[in-house]
Amino acid sequence: MKKVSLTAAALAISLPVTAQAAADVTINFGSTLPIPSNNDFQSELNNLGFGVYASVGASIILNGPAQLMFEFLGSESGYSDTFSTSGGLSYTETSTLENHFAAPIFIGWQSFSGATNLVNLLNFTSNLGGPATVGDSGFGI
Question: What's the pTM?
Fold first, then answer.
């Protein structure tokens, strides 16, 4: 079972940073950037092995049926940030500097029946900006 972990600051897929992971999920990174030093959770992310993120041009493709688990890890923004999926899973954080790295909040599971590009199936919105999906600058992996 592949585990996908989410944060309003950046999304992180807990799989090896390779183009192909166990033949179930393909993650394409247009280019990656280090988690910036002004991110309030840089040290927590680095300690979890998430030292880089990608947004523009990134994609997540399931190569067959899969069930993904989503968790909320934290947020640096303090704004009302919402993550949602096409299957109706949703979580909104509204408190300043929530920190759930030690005890992530379980959002739920979603099943995907076959080969699927997750563009437009995972969404992130903030009261600071418009909605973003996988591959948009407002949605980091």
Answer: 0.72
